[in-house]
Amino acid sequence: MSRSYNIVRPGFWAWAKEKELSAAARELALYCLTSPHTNGIGCFRLPIAYIAEDMGTVPATVRKTVSELSRIGFLHHDDSTGWVFIPGFLDHNPIANINVGKSLMPFVEAVPRKAPFYKAFLDVIERSAERFPEGFIDRMRNGIGDGSANGMPTHDHDHDHDHDHDHEHDAGAAVSAGEPEADPVAEAFTLYREAAQRHGWSIPRKLDDDRRKALSRILKEWDGLDGWRAGLAKAEASGFLTGKTPRDEAHKGWRCNLDFLTSPRKFRRLVEGGYGGDMPMPGPVSPRSTWAEGMP
Questions:
Q1: Which helix (H) or strand (E) holds 72?
Q2: Which residues of 114-149 are buried (b: 16+ CB within 10 A; e: fewer)?
Q3: Neighbours of 100 (CB within 10 A)
Q4: Rounded Cα distance, 277 and 185, in Å
Q5: Could you give the residue ranges of the DSSP H alpha helices within 111-239?
Q6: Are 35 and 46 in contact (CB under 8 A)?
Q7: According to the model, what pLDDT value does residue 282 have?
């Protein structure tokens, strides 16, 4: 789920002036710190096309501005996965306690290990190791997650970003030679997890046999991943399923979950408008970085 707030200190402006950032770079830096895609660890999926559409510009301009911020160490962006890493994020938005750390574990596990900044990312997370369960960081370094988040395909299709325009395909549009074909059930699972993070739904830790069978049935009956994306979009636009407009006192605070969405009867009702949601809703680093050092 996106954060309700992030800390951007007043020193940001002095830092931006000292670095002689362009107006576009200042705006992009603030966007990365406060956008709906931002999470609690400063490492999240943010393809160039998403930024371009949100900021009303074109991908070529965004790439130039991303390069400007990358040169001064504010961020790292991996085009192949569409993920961005802000090394100094946790310096200004520290993990408050172990309970918060536990809630952030799925975000850590979701970061693609093939991202070039992955080791630097773990170095930053390790500085907050006491905010996570004992041994968690070591397991991540050894490549031992729960098996549900990492290693899954991360495509830059418009499946978790509710805009009407077509995004460019930065990565994952085709399977490169020698790589296994994408698993649609695993991708559907990932799409749900991303939506769950945005809306506070229950986040499953593992794609077990029962969930795989249930997801496979939905994909078979409802036009594969396209149908699943359409259903998720309706769920994200539903005030009832997101807990914004409960139907009665008994449902106050309730939100949907994966088992709910993979029920054939409930999914049919969802795609046929039974839960509302016909109108689209907005979307879905290493040593201390130079941008963080210069800010009080």
A1: none
A2: ebebbebbbbbbebbeebbeeebbeebeeeebeebb
A3: 14
A4: 24
A5: 118-126, 136-141, 184-199, 209-221, 224-236
A6: yes
A7: 32
